[in-house]
Amino acid sequence: MKTMPLSALPHLTTAQMVEVDRLMIEDWGISLVMMMENAGRNLASLARRLLGGTVRAKDVIALCGAGNNGGGGMAAARHLHNWGANVRVILTGAPKKLKAVPAQQRQPLQKMGLFADDTDLGEADLLIDAMIGYGLQGAPRQPIAGWIVKANASGTPILALDAPTGLDTTMGVPSELCVRARATLTLALPKVGLVQPEARSCVGEMYLSDIGVPPELYAAPSLGLAVQSPFEEGMIVRLSH
User: Fold this and answer.
1) Taking a C-beta distance cutoff of 8 angstroms, is the pair 95, 30 a contact?
2) pTM for the complete prediction?
């Protein structure tokens, strides 16, 4: 896996990442389903790497929120199940609150019988934190706050999707309750908040995932960024300080 310094890439604020998503869907015709599938498959691939190169018979618990971050976690759970892992998925928000695309990701998991209402997080080989990504506003509320406490107390290594739940992706300030991840797979480009000194204890090792953003998109007037793709050797890059 390629390693590159964080300084070699632009860092996005939360507002800029929102604009990247908007441009992808509205201007480039690259759907949220496509982006979410890329994120989920890469998250599953990184999980496999963190588990020693195989997931067969490994116990993985995915904590998935009702938003798009949760949809990416559910996509990862599907791939991990298909690859032989023992996967349990906990939906940390009410099913009726699921956005359209995450609701679509939920359907195959229901057929697979992967959902659990509660389980001992300490029994897993790996936890996936896909509760809240860059959309966090204010401190996490219940029931997610409770799951953060359980995840951190479990002693199980945590892999976070895009950002640890509870971290402000622009300011880099962890909430009082913030997931403390062993590793974080952030999407498209590093987020400003993830590289701040205060965030390091929550972010852990940082990886970057290709979700299919054309380099030309970043040059749009609303962003004005010059980006050369870091993914010429693979869809995941390890980032170093």
Assistant:
1) no
2) 0.96
